Give the backbone structure.
Amino acid sequence: MTPCRLVARVAVAAVALLSPLAARASDGRGADSVIAAATGDTIVIDLAHRGADVSPTMYGVFFEEINHAGDGGLYGELVANRSFEDGLLPDGFCVAEGGGSVAVAGRNHLTGEATRRDFPWPTDDVPGWRLVTADSRAARMTVTTDRPAFATAPRNLRLDLAAGDAPVALVNDGYWGIGIAGGEEYRLRVIARTDGLYRGTLRARLVAAAGRDLAAVALPLAAEGWGDTTVTLTACAADTAASLVLDFDGEGTIWLDFVSLFPRHTFRDRPNGMRRDVAQLIAALRPAFFRWPGGCVVEGITMATRYDWRKTLGDVAARSGEYVQWGYRTTYGMGWHEVLQFCEDIGAAAMYVCNAGIACQMRLGDACPDDSVAALIDDCLAAIEYALGDTTTYWGARRAAAGHAAPFPLRYVEVGNENWGETYNRRFPRFRDAIKARWPDVAVIYNVMWKPDSGPVPETDMADPHWYVAPDAFFRSHDTFDRWPRANHTLYVGEYACNKGVGSGNMYAALSEAAFVGGMERNGDLVRMASYAPLLENVNDRRWPVNLIRISAAGAYGRSSYHVQKMAAAHRPDYNVFVSLVADSVRRGTSGGDDTAWPRCPLQFVGAGYDTTVSELVLKVVNAASVPYVKEFRIDGAAAVGTSGRVVTLAAHSGTDENTPADPQRIAPVESVADGFGTTFRYAFAPFSYTILRVRASVAPR
Ligand code: AHR
């Protein structure tokens, strides 16, 4: 048993209690409020005073192809630029300029203003690939569209191999190195053709960073036309920064259309599946839903570059991919089918976000004409049909042909991402009505943006506001939802994170999110769903300042915010109960300490709920101060309260402490069993901590 901070069981003197009724909300909400003013040093929990139910769908995840979250992240592919399509200019109003940028122009549909934005652009001739040869005259590589294997992904790599005194190696270092597991099998698929004159061989190797061969295999080359070959390489040892090397030892010309390397063991061993360690981190969050494809990529830089779910189906070698505003081209390998399969595998409902006929309003903000909207509505209905339609429908049959006859668990559709204004408000009802007419059980979600021209929220199942803030904003906003007017729709907080002034994501960020999450839980009648954003980053391509899970070829780990999400979801009570003090501001302790970082903020937050399945009181306490938060608790409304309980503590040495690649578990939850609970008890919450206490308790009969 780990020593715990339950300091003593003390008899608590009678305290002057505010009447719980004093806290009853008067703003028309259904559930009683479970907050009241402070009652001195004792926090009173009243099990018999029930608050709002905590939504079973509260905790979900937001996925977007940002920071190489998919390619180089969750998606299992190990080869970068496998189709040689990177370097293809995105469609529509784009000009590649020197110095690694592409300029994109568009006209904002609300202001009429012509806008230009620059996006990162690769400077390499063939991104991801390099030729290594002892004789520089021995080989040349060029990207061509000669006799493409797939019209939808037309580019291929032409290798002109001259007589040289050494073999030529074509090398791919993957996404900042290829992580290889010892003993694992890797499936290499190569689509290639020759000029008919090439007389040499083709050999593939996995090579460790230090130069040692980890696996090698010979590949046949088709005598004519495109040959499509899959071979297996079994690695004899592990490496975190390996390369795939293709060796050519002859003279002639070879075209490569597609080179893909996958571990045999993806998550649940799905073909074209997800990387196991990353998928497991997501699954461990036990997300109620999985949102896809974003995020800004839904909208596109311009309408022409919006994420197109149809192009994500079928043979991966034929998928076009798309350049996204986060500065790289995605393969579309982790497509709609793979996402739906992943949702099913992790027990999450799928959420699809469709384009509302408006490109990213934070950037260029062009919009299609109104008479093109019907086609976009049909496109959205088709995406839903792909997931839910029976096999007599066109898209249901396509799904079945792809290996999944039964429907997938799609439950939500959001119309647009971060859209606002008159055009959006006019289009939203058209999408909503069409979706509801065909799929009445699918919940439809509207974007809430804090803009002067946002207009009123139209009829919708849910509305989606976003928050990206500094810690003090979340500390201060712990009661945002207590004050939020109830309307005829509920909320899905689709994106929120503390990402300002917190390094690359420190403990202050995590604690402020825990405070904000507590407010969402307490108002479960209003906030039905929430997803932290963004979910993933490859550490080598952080395009967004702070992200939940960090990935590299060497492994993946969660930031402290990840642990807050995981703890909150794993300890989600069924309903809230009365707490006499939900926010406190203890800044100094007997052991010293003086928190002046956010002088006017509360730094301690308390939430309480009841888990009916195991009959436990669940207490969630944030202490963002540098001193212990020592409190007495009195449990009212209980027939009995256990004397021992479970304690889960996430604590850091300081608010600026972070998990790092070198120390990924520096801030991680510690579980223990503690004695000394009862109808009264005292607890010292560690500095910079998020603590969950679970104690068996039976509710007193009324
Ligand atoms: O989560 C990162 C970005 O933040 C999303 O793409 C967008 O919706 C928001 O502005």
Remarks:
- The first strand starts at residue 42 and ends at 53.
- The chain has ten helices and 37 strands.
- The CA atoms of residues 448 and 465 lie 5 Å apart.
- Residues 64, 66, 294-296, 417-418, 495, 533-534, 544 surround alpha-L-arabinofuranose (CB under 6 Å).
